[in-house]
Amino acid sequence: MLRALIFDVDGTLAETEDLHRQAFNRAFAELGLPWHWDPALYADLLTVMGGKERLAHYIDAQHPAEAGALHALAPEIHARKTAAYGALVSERRLPLRPGIARLLAEARADGLRLAVATTTSRPNVDQLLAVNFPPGAKPFDVIAAGDEADRKKPAPDVFLLALAGLDVSASEAVAFEDSAAGISSARAAGLPVLATRSRYTERHRLDGAFSAVSDLGEPGQPHRHIAGLAWPRHVVTLAALKDWHAGRR
Ligand code: XBP
Ligand code: MG
Asked: What is the pTM assigned to this prediction?
C-alpha cells in the first residue's frame, strides 16, 4: 500500500539551482575572489552533489596551486553562499514547480506521510518552504537534509534517513527526483522513482526511474512525457500513483 511520498528539493520541488549558482557568485564577489560560475560551468559542476563538495572539487580542479588557502576559506565561502541563497529565494519568491502543491495537498487529504530527502543545506529547505507555505504550516512530516546524512547522493543515506523518520518501508513509498545522482540515491534505498527533469538536468540520463516526465503537470497544463509509465491526461495525480503502486510487480 502506498503510504508515503518522498521529494528531492533542488530541481524537483522548485527550479532552485540557478539561484544556488547566483548565490555562489555573490559569495565569491563578497570575498574578492575573481571567480564567476556561468550556467554551462555550473551544469558541469552539478555532477558533484553538495555545495561544499562542489566548491572543494572546483578549487582542486581549477586552483590547485592555492588549494590549501582556498580550502581553509571554503567554509566562509559556503556560509556566505547559503546566506545569499536565502536572500535570493526570498527576493524572487521562488515558486514550486507545476503540480507539487497540488500533489502534496492530494496526499495530505488521503492521509499519506510526506518527506523531503535532499543534499542541500537545511536553511535552504526552510527558506523555500517559508516563501511557498503559510507561516506555521508543516507541509512535510520529515525533512532529511544536507549534512544530516553521512554521505551525499548518489549514496542512499538521505533517503534511508527519510524512510526511517517516516517509519515506512521503501516498498510503501515513491521518490521524486530530477537528477541522475538523485535517482541513483533513491534506487539504492530501494525506492521506485518518478523523475521530473529540470533545467539543469536536461542532459541527464533518467534511467532507473519508472516514469520520466517534464513535470507533474496540472489540469489544463499537461506535462511532456519523456520515458516509462505515461499518465492519464499527462498529469501525475495521487489516484494514478496509487493505481500504479498497487499494480506494480
Ligand atoms: C542539490 C544539491 C545541493 C545544491 C546546493 O540537492 O546538490 O548541493 O546544489 O545546496 P538536491 P548546498 O537535488 O538533493 O536537493 O550548497 O546547500 O549543498
Ligand atoms: Mg535535485
From this structure: 0.97
